[in-house]
Hints:
Shape of chain A: globular
Order of helices and strands of chain B: HHEEHHEEHEEHHHHEEEEEEEHEEEHH
Distance between the termini of chain A: 50 Å
Helix content of chain B: 25-40%
Radius of gyration of chain A: 21 Å
Radius of gyration of chain B: 33 Å
Structural class of chain B: alpha+beta
Helix content of chain A: 40-55%
Strand content of chain A: 15-25%
Strand order of the largest sheet of chain B: 5-4-3-6-2-1-7-8
Number of strands of chain B: 16
Oligomer: heterodimer
CATH superfamily of the largest domain in chain B: Histidine kinase-like ATPase, C-terminal domain
Strand content of chain B: 15-25%
Number of domains of chain B: 3
Number of domains of chain A: 1
Largest interface: A-B, 41 and 46 residues
Amino acid sequence: MAREGALKATREDWDTDTVKHYVRSHGWGPACENRAKAVRRAGRRLKEPLKYFTLCAGRAVDVFMLSRLGVLQIDGKTNRLQGVCWCEVRDDEAAEIERSVGGVGFRGRLEDILLFEDDADTRRYTLDDEPEKRIRRKLNIKSLHEGLRGRFPFDILNLDFCGQFFPPDEPFSSPMLRLIDRMLEWQRDADDQSCDSFTLLLTSCIRKRRSQDAMAELTTRLQDNIEQSPPFREAYESTFSGTDPKSLRERDLPAFFSVALPKVITSRARERQWSPVHVGTFVYTRSNSQTGESYWMLSWVAHFSRVTGQALKGNQRDPLYEKAITDIFAHGPVDVRKALSLRGVKKEVREDLAAVRKHRDRYWNAIAESRN
Amino acid sequence: MASTRAMKRPAKGEIRVSSKTLIHISQGIYRSTASTLRELVSNAYDVDATEVVITTNPPRFDHVTCTDNGAGMTLDAFIGLMDGGIGDSGKRVGKGLTAKLRRPVIGRIGIGLLAVAQLSNAFEVWSHHRDTETAFHGTVTLHDRLSDEADQVDPDTTEILPMGEYDTARIPFDPKRTGTTIVVSDVKRGFTRKHAPPTEFHAPPTDFRQFLDRCFSERRISSLGHYWELLWGLAVQCPIPYLPEGPTGEPPALAAASKRLNKQGLRLVVDQLRLWKPGPWQRLDGSANRNIEAHMAPFELDKAVAGKPLKVSGYLYAQNEAIKPTERRGVLVRIRDVGIGGYDRGFLDYDRASEGPRAHWISGELYVEQGLENALNVDRDSFNEMHPHYLYLQEQLHETLLPLFRGMQSGQRKRRAREHREQEEQSIQRLLGAIKDVTNVSFSFETAADDTGRLVRVDRKRRKIYVDEGAEWPSGSATAELAKLIAVARAVADSEPRKHARKRDEVFLHLLREVL
């Protein structure tokens, strides 16, 4: 029997969404262009394409924006986009990405793939043994885990999540946070250790229902920072007119998250020998057309550099860390909807999005026709 | 040993096929991945799709998707299919043409969807049905080791054997997504292992001409890997148009087929490579600059065989050199514009041994317009070789091939003779040049017999060298030619003044070196 109305979340219309494209064009695009310049300036990889990991949807607007900007290149011999690696859990979306972008695809939940751990079954069997379905499923994830690990490091990690970092009933170290840890480790430990720096584009959702314990923990950590370090306090106070994170959390949740989340990730990155340079945070509201629930989206853009020497522990202070946190505190988030209301901005974003669509259509048409 | 089964009474009635049979069939009837995916393309073709997009997620090859923009399927039709409708197709009811584009329907018994079972034990379907403006999402999970399970079932059972489970849900209809998407996950290990390269993966270009250039530069496409073979197989077998243009233009024998395929206009894109059918005019020699003699023989057949019409048209292309790549040698039979397997290098069981390497010089395509379909095996990759239509086609093909091979043989002889003559002429010219060097006289040859009875006579006054062609020169044209040239060398040397005996020998040795 058919399950009437059993419907998955509706798709956003990424092709016309100016709010999302503001973040792409004002945050992601410039940061990725800088990354591309840095890679080419370094000179070691003049002929190799930039390596880009994305959680793009089927329309892959981010991929084609970067292609249009020349960050991602099309191979002259094969006419294929180079260096794109993606992960998608929905099969229909994945089919569309494969069709439109190509690249190397990993189908499954990123959390499952990255956080996979061997167990008795996966140690005992391989896929060649053709074990039962339950074990095969685990082995397939193992294969994805190993395959994705082999693709690291990337020059740009675009983690455009639709989930939230601190969901209710999850410990502070939620799967998404552990996923970030794992990625930072893979970036650091990749076979040739060739990755000295990379760019992170991190997007997540902020919902009203979230872990209260995690909120308290975040507030305490921020409070400690502000109290213990005068530069932090100064930067925080100048941006948020006060030194009480709890009041900011109650007054302006997205602003609170725009400092709390990057701060948490910065600490964890330092433990894994990475130091971020804060580029910016963007926040905007969304609402679910079916449930009516409204929520916020937060996007953080940062460049990460490898820190040589010993890894730092949580409480250790160092100049790089202090600079990163000060920058995060000193720059409040960009309210995308406000920015779009400024004169001419929306038109400019809309035109840029149209140009990306046109670029994408040209690429698709070239494939569909493929005549000399 | 006494049978444990109860004895049955004599009876008459309907003959039925066990559902076990279908289970065994579902587990593998197609010889190659190309044939498996071809079935999905054929299914899409039968619902008037104008575009089919297949992705295999290279280089991982862990998923396969097939998306078409055809009419789509209703939820009821899908449930009907799952509830015992597989192998019970009504697609050919009526005139056997598709509803919108009036294409000849390819599918006959409705087991195309089972092709998926050969790739995996799980797949998902999304379909947006144009006419009813409804859509659904279905998941299908087949039981593991179905064939083993089926073997355990009591042969006397009449119950329908479950193959797996399915689940469906209605989803909102999206007119932009009219058609069907099949996503095959948990792909069987064999598929992944076969296609995933052990070392670095070389993606084919997205331009089909470049793809063909690469294929034709190899002796075998398989040397580029199974994935390239898969793409080639789909290009050759699916009902898609021919790659336009070419150095020699489209052969008249294919005009009707080519026009029809263009009109039907199915676009097939696999992993961003749009596939075309490679035509016979696309560099069968595998090299752009070589001057190869080619011959295109049309093949026409229109006759009632065993009371039913058999109509076939096509061509047989022959060239005086082995065709590259090897996958293109032989003859490809198409029924309803779909290739039956690949090129048959055996030419429907022709006695190739007697033709030696010439059997590698022919490539042909035969479009069956009427008949032969009943001779087609379920896999749509081979024929029942006892069927009268097959036998007649075989006979006619062999009758066409025989003079073609004979013509090639005769052409080969003529070409060799011509080459021999050219070599002879070159040798003569070289010798005359050498004679001029040593005698300062420009001689020419006369083949008329000399009345002195000598084999060769040198007339310095007239500047002529007479060679008696009628003499008994050693047998074998090459040997005879060599003997004549040596005789000429000796005669020219002897024509030097007698007092210069030493010089005579030097002249002879010099000319001999030229001759040899």
